[in-house]
Design goal:
268 residues, mainly alpha, 11 helices, globular, disordered N terminus
Length: 268
């Protein structure tokens, strides 16, 4: 008797996107509760002259250590919000930011993000260099080389989307969900996972662009106006983290529950 082979899953694209969005919108109180402690980084902004405003209007400031520190803090805190909200989606547990267990999750989450970036960028640089070298002999135009150079990281990122399942696994302490397991379980779903996450980023991305345009039009140096824009920028950044966490949580639930079961091939 032959052993039953695990089925190749087919993520229901629009259903997953819809459920991910709706979960956040129906749980805005949870978003506020989880993101509230993250606003503590506004103290750094107030002490350093609001360097995060460089992200809203790059022409208004000169990048320096203060801005890099601001970006690092926002990056770390946004990851914490993502982990906490993902745990709500999957485990229905409240945030435990100040526990040792949460610190371990945060460190592992950051490490795996850095590894993923390296896994994408290092081959991308190598492939771009090879294409540029070959292109110089074939007489390719500069525009053609630039276009190819833009597509290479995109294609590698789409392929690497099969590893995204590791992140909710870290958030919920699923030690069995390794990089190899994530890559195996998500076979055939790289495009769906990548483009669904892009869609999840669109609302806050649009609002952040609108916020930037409004700030540029105001052309103000008023302290309290700047503070308001900083708080709005953080609020949107944390909301974006919650949308991402919701998506991670829902694909985690799908792949881990259905990994040995037959599922519909397409959402209707």
């Amino acid at each position: 008797m032959t052993e039953k082979q695990p089925v190749q899953l087919n993520l229901p694209f629009w259903e997953t996107v819809k459920r991910s969005f709706m979960f956040v919108l129906k749980n805005m109180k949870t978003y506020l509760k989880i993101s509230a402690p993250a606003f503590a980084i506004v103290v750094y902004e107030m002490l350093c002259g609001f360097p995060i405003l460089c992200n809203i209007n790059p022409e208004s400031c000169t990048p320096g250590m203060a801005q890099r520190g601001s970006l690092a803090l926002l990056w770390i805190v946004s990851f914490a919000v993502t982990i906490a909200f993902c745990r709500v989606v999957v485990l229905k547990t409240p945030a435990d930011y100040f526990s040792l267990a949460f610190l371990k999750r945060e460190c592992k989450y950051i490490l795996y993000n850095l590894l993923l970036v390296a896994a994408i960028m290092l081959p991308a640089f190598l492939l771009i260099a090879i294409v540029a070298f070959i292109g110089s002999f074939l007489g390719m135009t500069q525009n053609s080389l630039v276009t190819i150079g833009m597509f290479i990281p995109l294609l590698l990122t789409i392929y690497a989307a099969r590893l995204f399942l590791v992140f909710p696994g870290i958030a919920v302490d699923d030690a069995g969900l390794t990089i190899q397991e994530s890559f195996r379980m998500t076979k055939g779903n790289a495009n769906k996972i990548f483009w669904a996450q892009i869609i999840m980023m669109l609302p806050c991305g649009f609002l952040l662009v609108s916020l930037s345009s409004a700030y540029i039009l105001l052309k103000t140096d008023n302290y309290f106006v700047n503070l308001i824009f900083v708080l709005l920028y953080m609020a949107l950044s944390f909301l974006d983290s919650c949308f991402k966490a919701s998506f991670y949580g829902h694909i985690y639930q799908y792949f881990t529950f259905y990994k040995t079961h037959d599922v519909p091939s397409e959402d209707k």
